[in-house]
Amino acid sequence: MKLGYVIKFVADMNRAVKFHRDVLGLPLKFESPGWSEFVTGETTLALHPASEKNPAGTVELGFHCRRHPKIPPRDERAGCPVQHATDKARLRRPTRAVRGLGRRTL
């Protein structure tokens, strides 16, 4: 398993892109109103518009892992709901809610 994404929820995509690009000096990979990414090595920094469910300033972590059947049951037994997102490489990224830290994508 390795950290693939840090997803930061932002109130204003244009201002957030300008800050990360112009102030922090991160190279912009691509920009759109609904999703922007920066080149940061093996882990991608992604910006996503905030919502009621994901307020501005909250963060999700996206881990790339091959099918790992032990992750969902263990997290679900611990009271953390798990969701899976499958990308083109057929990697599974379970997402779990962690009290005090918001949602995390595993």
Report what the structure shows.
The chain is α+β, with helices and mostly antiparallel strands and 106 residues long. It has a single domain, classed as 2,3-Dihydroxybiphenyl 1,2-Dioxygenase, domain 1. It has helices at residues 13-23, 71-77, and strands at residues 2-10, 28-30, 36-38, 44-49, 59-64, 82-86, 92-98, 102-105. The chain has a five-stranded mixed β-sheet, covered by helices on one side. The longest helix is centred in the first third of the chain and has 11 residues, at 13-23. 12% of the residues are buried.
Q: What's the topology here?
A:
Layout (H helix, E strand, L loop, with lengths): L1 E9 L2 H11 L4 E3 L5 E3 L5 E6 L9 E6 L6 H7 L4 E5 L5 E7 L3 E4 L1
Parallel strand pairs: 1-4
Antiparallel strand pairs: 1-5, 2-3, 3-4, 6-7, 7-8
Defining traits:
106 residues, alpha+beta, 5-stranded mixed sheet, 3-stranded antiparallel sheet, 2 helices, disordered C terminus
